[in-house]
Amino acid sequence: MTLAAIQQRFHATVTGVDAAAVLDWPGDMRAGLAVYRSAYRARLLDCLRDGFDKCRKWIGDESFDAAATHHVILHPPASWTLDEVGRGFNKTIGALFPGDPEVEELAWLEWELQQVFTSPDVPALATGDFADRAAAFAEGDWLDLRLTFVPSLRTRVVRTNCTALWTAIGQEADMPRLDLVGNASTLLLWRKDMRSQFRLIDDDESVGLALMQGGATFEDLCTALVRSCGDEAGIAAAGNMLGRWMTDALVSDTGPAVRATGG
Question: Is residue 171 domain-shared with residue 69, that is, in the same domain?
Answer without folding.
Answer: no
